[in-house]
Amino acid sequence: MASRTPTRTQNRSSATKRGTPRKTTKRSESGSQKSSGQKGSSTSRSSENRSENRSSGRERETSAFSFGDNGGAILGAALAGAAIGFAANYGRKFLMQSLEATAGDWDEILVAEHEATLAVFDRMLATDETQTWKRSMLLMKLTHALDKHAHQEEMVVYPALREANITHDADTLESEHGYVKTFLYELKQMGPSAPNWLEKVREFRTFISKHMHMEEEQVFPSFKKDLSEEQNSKITRLVNSDGFWMA
Ligand SMILES: [Fe+2]
Ligand SMILES: [Fe+2]
Predict the structure, then answer these.
(1) Ligand 2 ion: residues within 5 Å (CB)
(2) What is the mean pLDDT of residues 213-218?
(3) Which CATH number fits domain 103-246: 1.10.630.10, 1.20.120.520, 6.10.250.3280, 2.40.50.140?
(4) For residue 35, what pLDDT band results from cuts at 50, 70 and 90?
(5) Which DSSP letter does residue 66 get?
């Protein structure tokens, strides 16, 4: 115990000593400025240096959270770029969906998409094993087109079919969409230079063509003939709206 007391005193004393010079220096700076010109100018320079250091420190602190003098311009450019990208994306969606809307009613829009999709299949079937880049690009295009098309049918048309008690056909068609995804998965897994790539694309086209014919010639016409004009317009509007977000 006796040995710990002096240590505390020493610590307190040294803490006071460490703290004191700052106050003492301030006092002596102002005192020195009054009493000695040379000393005063030296201390004044020191004070200016500290002031500059403090000032540059503030600048460094500020620069860590800002873009500096050009911050406004950089932020403005970033916002303008984001706005252009946003507008361009909406413009693209609007253009794509406007083109589709000119196709007419919901079933005519979907038939136009069927035809566009089959055209992509035909371009794929016209490639050879050396055109791997083209095959990959066409597969990406096909995947996007089928994703959008399936979304429109699964989120609007098939639920409307079930609402009209055409449940069995709706379920059959939706189940076939699962196999469409399986074909896409298999093509991605095998790669564009696989020796059986064309064979798989041909098998896929035959499958999806049968699915499309069932929709176009059997399910959609029998559903549409019982729709009122208002119901038909509503489904067209919903298909267009869903297609806009998926475009
Ligand atoms: Fe379908
Ligand atoms: Fe379809």
Answers:
(1) 215
(2) 98
(3) 1.20.120.520
(4) very low
(5) S
